Amino acid sequence: MGAVVAETLRSILDAAARGVFPAADGRTTVVPQPSHRDAGVFAFTAHSVVFTDEDPRWVHEALRAVDCDALAASMNARFLAAFMERTGRGSDTIDVMTVGAPLPGEPPLALTKIDDPDHPRVVSSRKRRDDVRVWAADGGVLVLGRGVAGRLEVAVEVDEDVRHRGLGRALAHAARQLGGDEPVWAQVSPGNARSLRAFQAAGYLPVGSEVLLSARRVS
Asked: What are phi and psi of 176, to 5 degrees?
């Protein structure tokens, strides 16, 4: 399946944002978790990256035990279930991983910065991201924050009564201008075709798939 290499998750992501992907050799690279919060799998074309503090030998053995095409093993339900059982973590969904290059200028969309730390969108975003910033538009919300390996991530929300007017696309496009000189990452559920089309229309390119394993909260 592959061997451990001297790379970091951030260096892999930075390269992918530039269009430079891991070799399409059918292997799996295992790198340490960038933080306690974040573990999971990124699947690129014919190459997977597993980020975990577990023994890499366990990862490769668990992948070999999955009865499916080796190229699909890292996103197979059996491997992910074993990964969660091994680490005591949970997950939500497998997402499409997209990235948008930075854009100059100011967003043409009217945005108001939300500085309230108790705002529901700020509170929920801080569970997954650091340095969260939130802007409100007429009928929508834009969130930027530091997610996996410190990458800059965006999330947008559009009110139901203003959908189909291009606001989601405008918010996603504005994030590329608000992010400074950094690429902006967006994770979208494959089944959320409306959101996926909005990000693609705003210039975000698909680079792979991802699943994040979060530490389960103890009640």
From this structure: -70, -20
- Identify which of 99, 96, 72 has the alpha carbon closest to the alpha carbon of residue 15: 99
Q: What is the pTM of this model?
A: 0.91
Would strands 89-90 and 27-31 be described as parallel, antiparallel, or unpaired? Answer: unpaired
Q: Which of 215, 209, 206 is nearest to 76 (CA)?
A: 209
DSSP-assigned beta bridge partners for residue 155: 143
Q: Per residue, what are the HEC states of the chain?
A: CCCCCCCCHHHHHHHHHCCCCCCCCCEEEEECCCCCCCEEEEEECCEEEEECCCCHHHHHHHHHCCCCCHHHHHHCHHHHHHHHHHHCEECCCCEEEEEECCCCCCCCCCCEEECCCCCHHHHHHCCCCEEEEEEEECCEEEEEEECHHHCEEEEEEECHHHCCCCHHHHHHHHHHHHCCCCCEEEEECCCCHHHHHHHHHCCCEEEEEEEEEEECCCC
Give the tokens for residue 95.
């997402």
The answer, yes or no, to whether residue 161 has pLDDT greater than 90, is no
**Is the CB of residue 100 less than 8 Å from the CB of residue 200?**
no
Q: Which tokens belong to 45?
A: 């074309």
How does pLDDT run across 165-194, given as a tens digit for each residue? 789 999 999 999 999 999 999 999 999 999
